[in-house]
Amino acid sequence: MHGRAAVVGVGESRYYKRGEAPDTEFQLACTAIRNAVEDAGLSMRDIDGVVAYMERNEPVRLSAALGMGDLDFTAQTFGGGGNGAGAAVTIADAAIAAGYAECVVVFRSLAQGQFGRYGQSGRARRSRGAGAFTVPYGMQTPAQICAMQTQRYMYDHGISQDSLAEVVLASYAHAQRNPRAIRYGTPLTREEYHSSRWIAEPLHLYDCCPENDGAAAIIVVSAERSRDTRKQPVAIIAGAHGLEHRDGVAAFGEAGFPTAHHRHVGEQLWKRSGVSPRDIPVAQFYENFTGPVLMAIAEMGFCEPGELNEFVADGNIRWPDGRLPINTSGGNLGEAYIHGFGNVVEAVRQVRGESTCQVDGAELSLSVSGPGYAPGSAVLFGTL
Amino acid sequence: MAALPAGWGVPELDATNRAWFTSGALAVQQCASCGVLQHPPEEVCHQCGGTSFDVNVLAPRGTVHSYTVVHYAANRALVDAVPYTVVLVSLDDAPHLRVVGNMEGDVEIGMPVVPYWEERTAEDGTAVLLPQWRNARSEPGASRS
């Protein structure tokens, strides 16, 4: 699988605060896909595969509206969160490698101003299945779930509140250089972080991803075909998505609690790619909430959990001088929350040399998706 | 001393969760084939694949494994309930089994807790008993040691 497929186009809609998009979510999806196809220098008729995750906008409508070619492959992943972003890229990679499709668009569109807000829950009158053991207690939103994981993780490993802040401050600092970012021009101080209200302890307001409207897309083709496209092709070196036995079972029942569900993902990714965390110069860690980012950094093998305070302190995860700059577009927190697909686009841009916080000579670029939810996923991009 | 409004969230009873939500005890599912305990209860045993289960009542004692104090009401029905505390309790008889519940007052990881049962009634009249938790040290007759 090493580099058999490559990303040749990336595109986004404009990103908006929740409720401010003048276009419908479907129109935002179409815009992102058009922009990615144009970026690749391809024709919409070239698209023969569509892959997404948790997506409302189906290939039937999209292909009709956009004038895609005949579709040979469509797929969507399991899982209830941004954990599907890397998984979707991996599925496209597999489809290309298997020959089921030649030109696959992978995308996510999400307009929380037009549909349900992820930070809210429905009125819980009856709770079924796994929810019967949590929802009656007012434990139902992602923030609450990740707060429960983070609280124990901080206790077990002596993680400081300031280390959660470091993740936020890195994203906001990077967003100040990215005109696409919703938080462009709106920096955040450490004091503002610490004085912001609690959402669910130990998560402050700024530990939580915003609710936004927008869409992002990439185009994946075979490495062979990528040589004819407009921009520098970016190889999918390896992808991984999966879970350990009982990872993510109901009501925090997994043996490894608290976990970001990325231990197995990390092991598989490094085994498949033949590289190790110390080879990685830049990474995008999906920030639903800051706690799971720290957990994922350790579970992916960048440091031991007890070393996290030091790993993220003193600008170590910030561009340009940090040893591992993360979320260099501003990420979900600072750029926009498009369910983590912006992180995938940014990982590709780093290899192309197009990031607004460009790490010099980034020949490898990691994107880790959806910590806190199983199955987790990750993709390693690199030069072809 | 319910933390949440009376009409909030009633579990829908089914074959796997009925004992847990109606017995007024920590009635944990136990595989009839291999004896493993599993909670929340499932339709298939995670250890041997068995589909026949017994109920094993564990001692009413636990330890706070994690918690969160929820300040943001994710639904309008909870606006007057915040802040409320959700605890994840490890059962002393089987520490790998964890139970989500509510708790009032101060809370910290490692705190010994004991359950009590809160009755909630669904719109169709079905009554359930939800395990909730309180600090074992503040129980009447609790040891001061």
Q: What does this molecule look like?
A:
The complex is a heterodimer of chains A (384) and B (145). In chain A, α5 (161-175) crosses α9 (290-299). In chain A, the strands form two sheets. In chain A, strands 1, 2, 3, 4, 5, 9, 10, 11, 12 and 13 form a ten-stranded mixed sheet that branches. In chain A, strands 7-8 form a two-stranded antiparallel ribbon. In chain A, 32% of the residues lie in helices and 19% in strands. Chain A has twelve helices and 13 strands. Chain B has 145 residues and is mainly β. Chain B has two domains: 13-58, no CATH class; 60-135, OB fold (Dihydrolipoamide Acetyltransferase, E2P). Helices cover 3% and strands 43% of the residues of chain B. In chain B, the strands form two sheets. Chain B has a five-stranded antiparallel sheet. In chain B, strands 3-2-4 form a three-stranded antiparallel sheet, with no helix packed on it. The model of chain B has no long low-confidence stretch (mean pLDDT 93). Chains A and B meet through β6, α4 and β7 of A and β1, β5, β6 and β7 of B. β6 (126-127) of chain A pairs parallel with β1 (10-11) of chain B.
Describe the secondary-structure layout.
The complex is a heterodimer of chains A (384) and B (145).
Chain A: E1 5-12, E2 16-17, H1 25-40, E3 49-53, H2 59-66, E4 73-77, H3 84-98, E5 103-111, E6 126-127, H4 142-157, H5 161-175, H6 190-195, E7 198-200, E8 203-204, E9 212-222, H7 223-226, E10 234-242, H8 263-273, E11 283-285, H9 290-299, H10 308-312, H11 331-334, H12 341-352, E12 364-369, E13 376-383
Parallel strand pairs in A: 3-4, 3-5, 11-12
Antiparallel strand pairs in A: 1-9, 1-10, 2-9, 5-9, 7-8, 10-13, 12-13
Chain B: E1 10-11, H1 18-22, E2 26-31, E3 37-38, E4 53-58, E5 62-70, E6 84-91, E7 94-103, E8 112-121, E9 127-135
Antiparallel strand pairs in B: 2-3, 2-4, 5-6, 5-8, 6-7, 8-9
